[in-house]
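From: lab user (bench 3)
To: helpdesk
Subject: output format question, protein + thymidine-5'-phosphate

Hello, I'm new to running complex predictions and I'm not sure whether the block I got back is the full result or only part of it. Here's what I submitted:
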Amino acid sequence: MFITFEGIEGTGKTTQIQNIKKYFESRGKEVFLTMEPGGSRVGRELRKMLLHVDNKDLTPLTELFLYLADRAQHVAQVIRPELEAGKVVLCDRFADSTIVYQGYGRGLDTTMLQQLNEAAVAGLWPDLTIILDIDPEVGLKRATDRNIEEGKAMDEGRFEAEHISFHKRIREGYLTWAALNRDRIRVADASSSPNDVFERIKTIIEARFFATG
Ligand code: TMP
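Helpdesk reply: Thanks, we reran it on our side. This is the complete output you should expect:
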């Protein structure tokens, strides 16, 4: 079972992924948590490059190829082996982030991005993708506060430093992309309490994997 989580900055993805991990473990499953960018050894180096605020001069294409390199390495070295070992893999961001950030956000052609994603994932698509949806003003404030609190404003703040209009395009992009991929992608409202959001995600997972009758 391979499940990916998506959304703009500050949706509470990290907290929810932890909750879902506990949920699967309580059902006797072994869970492997991972993320993009930075889910492999080489990927952690790429993550530093991709997210540092000093690297504002990355061109959209350079940025794209770094994310794809991170993904190719992550799938081959981490995700595929963990799935083959029988684990449930939960991943914080995956190929849909490329479509939405580099496509709807930066303006690169989404058909080209989908082809490049196909090459990077080498046939390994998620069984389910959950988009946590929230108003960008709320999400951005949460993400910026968190970066400051954790002392990561410079190291990881390149996207948070983007104008609010960029984040609005990302949110709309996610909703458009979800509507085009209804078989795999579900949207969960992430504006209420963490507990409510968890219940929503759990309902989606149960309907997808454990529905009876
Ligand atoms: P995060 O791990 O804190 O969510 O930060 C990752 C950032 O990288 C986030 O702003 C989204 C961005 N991103 C892309 O632009 N394209 C991608 O393919 C991925 C995986 C992430």
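A quick orientation on your result: The longest strand covers residues 128-133. Let us know if anything else is unclear.
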